[in-house]
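Schema walkthrough. Field components (list of strings):
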Amino acid sequence: MTIINAADYDNYELLQMLEKMPQPEIQISHVNGQRYIACGWKNNKRLILQGTVGNNLGAFAEGPQIVVFGNGQEGVANTMNDGQIIVHGRVGDIAGYGMRGGKLFIKENAGYRLGIHMKAYQEKKPVIVVGGSAGAFAGEYMAGGTIIILGMNSNQALIGSYCGTGMYGGAIYLRGEYPSRNLAPNLKKEVLGADGLAEIKDYLAEYVSFFGDTMENITSAPFTRLSVEKKRPFAHLYTGFVS
Amino acid sequence: MRYVIIGGCIAAMGAVEGIRSIDKKGSITILDGEQRGVYSRPLISYYLAQPDRFKNLAYRSAEYLDHHGVDVMKGWAVQIDRSRREVVLHDGQIISYDRLLIATGAAPFIPDISGIKAPWVKTFYTIADVEALDSILTKGHNALIIGSGLIGMKAAESLRQRGLNVSVIEKERHILPRILSPESANMVNCLLNEAGIKTQCGEELTAVNENQANFASGLCLPVDILVLAMGTKPHIELAMDAGLKVNQGIMVDEYLQTSDENIYAAGDVIETRNIITGTSEIMALLPLAHREGYLAGVNMAGSKSCAYEGGIFMNSLNILGISICSAGSLPRAETEFLVWQEDHKYLQIFLDGDFLCKYIAVNLPEVTGPLTNTIADKIRIEKRLWQHFMTSPTLSAFPDVYWQKLRKEANYDYNKCS
Amino acid sequence: MAHNIMMPAFKVQRDEERCIRCGVCVRQCANNVHNLDEDGWMWVQDDKCVACHRCAVLCPTRALNIIEYPLDFRGNQHWTPASIREIYAQAQSGGVLLSGMGNPRTYKNYFDHLLINASQVTNPSIDPLREPMEMTTYLGNKNHHSCGEKPQLKLDIPLMFSAMSFGSVSINVHKSLAVAAKSLGTFWNTGEGGLHPDLLDFGRGAIVQVASGRFGVHPDYLDNSAAVEIKIGQGAKPGIGGHLPGEKVSQDVSLARMIPAWSDAISPAPHHDIYSIEDLAQLIETLKVATRFEKPIAVKVAAVHNITAIASGVVRAGADILVIDGFRGGTGAAPMRIRDNVGIPVEMALAQVDSRLRDEGIRSQTSLVISGGIRNSADVMKAIALGADAVYIATAALIALGCHMCQMCFTGLCNWGIATTRPDLTKRLNPHLGSERAINLLAAWKHEMMEMMGGMGINAIESLRGNRLMLRGIGLSKEELGLLGVKGVGE
Amino acid sequence: MKVVAWTEYCLGCGLCEIYCAAQHDGYNGNVLKIFKKGRPMHRSRLLKAEQGTWLNTCMHCTHAPCINGCISGAIKRDPNGIVYVDYERCVGCYSCVMLCPHGHVRPWSERHQVLKCDLCRDTGLPSCVANCPNGALQLVD
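Field assembly_structure (string):
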């Protein structure tokens, strides 16, 4: 493994160097807010980042495997097409915006607008697992994929306001108690027993393997699955006529 | 190169075109035994029906022959001298050749029974036959046609059009036995009767007496004109005398070459391969005669390069507005078939596994082109597609596989078009 | 709902003397206006007619004519027939009124109040048939002092095809324009609906869009492009997002957008990762990093009231190309109220933005491209003289492909094969003919522009850019002249 | 020379058939007149199959089975390679109909003759090509 000290370079030098490095596995220490790491990457390189990463980590990427020992800022996995990002800490706003594939695991809390406009396509099914809680607008305009919010490592309410507003596809799984006033209307709510978790069991197992909790502990609380019955919520909003 | 063609009919014309596609200069001589010029035999029935309208029976015009530099000699060949490469004509003239094509065709079969030489008993094969018939026919008389094959039917039609009372007598169980199935024959029979042609099957001519024909069953019919249409036999005598290999017809290889390397043969006089049954037989059909002649011509003029794959039986005839098309053969006696029928239209197709082997279409000529070619090209089309087609047999309903194949063969690039 | 009280908008007139019952109109109308029954009786449903003219154009005997429905309301300057009909429609359905194409209202058109100069005596005019005439221009950041060469787009003609997403328009529109752009030495724009796999070869000639829905955006899409355009807003519907109804999301559209077929495709109003100029700067930067600084990044905004401040911010955020879309810009579907009432004319926005960027000394950091209702080569000339580097056209291109401006794009039943994804309608636009027509149009415009430039004594398009002395205003107030930065006629 | 039809651009509008009929029998493309006063007999037919619609037209084959199988020599090839019917000679046996692989040659039942494309050889560009609204028909060599 190659180890780099981020403090030795300025932001763009670091990005350019990473771009050119042939090594499959790179560790970067002393990351301190450097932006755009792994942006638009189309490879399976493995990055281990120590410190706090800057905005848009892994945006537009397809394939990189990224582990952050620290926190993420805004736009983690923004419009990501494929790959895996594991954050051993918390992330800022718009994590997983427009994400179409790959997986994002966050140990602690996520900021506002988590997984906004996520969508699935054929074999591409994006997944976000948040160990803590999520801010307002989680899953807004969600069109596909899976968001799981566990509330394990957080003292806050599980979700902020307007969760699932305008959602028209995919599913959000909430573990345990949540403020139901924060849910958008028209969402279909199903409370699941342990047997109802088959769909997400693998993701939970991955979470456990990354962050070291136990499956028993996670499944000790009931899960609520949020989805939509009407796949076309806006079909009757408009009217055309021969003007 | 000097080419001589014995016979001046369809195969000869094919040969001229075939030779000229390769050799523009060599001399071509056609020996026209009938001394009537190059004409098309199937047209004689139209000539008989409307002598004024169809005076000109030429298959290709005189200008056409001129243009191709063809010398038509009147006279029939009596002997082929292979060693000297010469043909001897009836008047003793000697024509030498480098390549010879025997396209002598066939002649009507005349049974050896009493009274057959009566002046009102005629055959229906040449212009001379038609002229002979024309000279004796009178409106309202009774005409009897012996044999309900293609020739018999066309003779019946033209005599009917001339206002005679026409009856067709067939020895087999149904009319047009080589073309129709019992089911379709039944329908055609009704249509023919409606159109004023009487038919009688299962009767064999035994004797011809004065104004009367006798049959094996004891039937006895009054008759003013009797037309013999009992089939043809190939003119193989010339080839036999010359020592060429002959079976029922002249034997040729796939290049239409006889057992003499300088002599080819084509048309009704040869035996060819039926590509459905795989057997070698006489297939006296106009389109095949042309193709055989053409390929023989090509092979005579150049190196032996164009092989003849054989042919299929196919016939299209119109009798008093009834259209009958048929192609193919049955490889076995028991062959699966599908039928569609509506009003006066009828279609029967015979399937050999996923291959079409024969069809019979009555008053439904529109779809027959693709059907014929599906048989001839042995295109595999699943049975269920045929079943679908037979629910409403139109070109649009024709199995898409066929159209795709045609389009693939055309294979044009849009960008390269004008 | 009870009987609809709205009368038809159009009347189909059939000349029975000329009609031969051939049925071409029946087969060509996707709205089922024409019907031929088994008795040979032709009948017409006027209320379904949208006046697309398909039937009239294809009728082999010219037996058809379409007129506005002659039944008129009582004359009223305030309650116009249109305003009454709109109320009927909403009272019937309860929906937001939807419409297609650009703003059809009679707002002042500043292009029509600008006149172009020509040389006489003191400065000889140039004959473009004889003299070389440079029509090439480059788009991108020209400020090379700070950090080296910046990526540029080279245009052989200062015209590009504007963004129209696959889904809102048919694949054959994309094919036509992609081929035409390649042949003309310019660029086409994918719009926000991704790039269809059939058109991968034309990606390098395409400006690819990244909009709030992020449809079809992935690394290959970004790599296989000429430039990337962040779509913030659109002139036809500033401030709101897009909504491609599920009916138009066919298998092919699904492939390009990478969403399941027949599901709605919703673009939110804002990019939720852009709530400020700083956020925009970050998305621009992200895209530059993702494309390894090899491609210019464009930002497209709608012309709105404080466009100058917005433009300044966008340029400072690092946009290499700033696209301003005026309120006459087209759309596949927009709420009618927004299309007709929101935004400002692009002429005014352009003049103001160009001046402002010059005043702030940042004009060289960006290229200005404008769009929104450009009808002809004179509009292009005026736009360039007002300060544009190049011009986007879309509606004009669609008209070249056969659009008859019926403004019913949102139904997906375009009889001309343009605003539809139905395969049987899509095939009505043969891209071989479409590209030829688009090429013809732009070739003709190019020649006209060279003629006008020659008349002005200018032999390079870049010499015209921002050369407002070549314009005079007519019928404009002093204030308008001042805002446009042009003198009045006679001055 | 032949007309090639592209299903991918064929709209099935049927204008080809209409203009084909009007171009023949002395109507010189006058659609109105042939439909109002005459007997419109189009040569080529619009077919509709699984793969879409297309004009089923003559390929003017190099070894044209219709020419070779014609019993009266009525089907001829002109110096430009166009295969046409000499109506002086056609007797309506339909051998050509039976032989045409494209199913293009069709009966003209009321005249007991056959109809086939002659590429509008008397008037220049084939009428179907000239009037196809979508370029789905092209004349190729």
